[in-house]
Amino acid sequence: MTAEDRGPEDGEQVRIVEVGPRDGLQNEDRTLPVQERVELVERAVAAGVSRIEAASFVNPERVPQMAGAEEIMASLSEPARAASIGLVLNRKGLDRALESGVGEVNVAVPATDGFSVRNQGTTVEAMLETLADIDGALAGTGVPLSVTVSTAFGCPFDGEVPTERVVEVVRRIADTSAVEIALADTIGVGVPRQVTELLRRSEEVAGGRTLRCHFHNTRNTGYANALAAVDAGVRVLDSSLGGFGGCPFAPAATGNIGTEDLLYMLHRSGLRTGVSLSGAVGVAEWMGERLGKTPPAYLGRAGAFPS
Description:
This protein has 307 residues and is α/β, with parallel strands linked by helices. The protein has a single domain, classed as Aldolase class I (TIM Barrel). 42% of the residues lie in helices and 15% in strands. The mean pLDDT is 95. Keywords: Lyase, Metal-binding.
């Protein structure tokens, strides 16, 4: 691996949040055993990933692919544990995450009631109240809080999501100690112009919080949206090794943008990520072998340029 493999040394930094071990696996037919999920996290960290969705502290009966969160955290090396993000949706999940030693807590707050009720069993307003409770419980722990606004660009149940609705959810999140707010295109319906406008409006009420974006390539707009976000000033993006991913509670929510494809685009655009492109391709191939399928991302098949 060369320095150029992680982006030009003099390039501006764009940080990658690797979501493969959580969002990438939660909708797969084949459930990977705990030790293989641990190895996936370790391999990603070795490739240069500094933040990674390592575990989901949700009800394993609803999402069996995410069972064993505590075992995963207990088996991680110290560097991987420090890089780990744990998804929580309630106080019980938070207690589990803190006892497991996660490096960061992420809470998902949908922008629409249709998705919130089906995915989390509660309304958006009730979820915002839960977020405030989680925020209070995190005080003094030293564990940072990030919040993801799901269905910010469109909902599989409620349809179009008014910008004002998303902006109000962001404003409410900004009342907490969250250090970062992610806007998520959960079902891959957003387009670049929408990305630019939603980021502009969200920044107005985010109170200086870092804005992050999470895109799916369901309708082949994910990478264009990612570049639009970067052009709008976003410097943190979610992606999934191999382009795996989807939501079991969102019909037709196919894969996340692939980490290796995103790295290629960013590096060739003169930006630095610190994540090895060749390393990411290798981890995605390893992941595909265990899932018994070819990774949806393209770079593993086409190869980098220059080769």
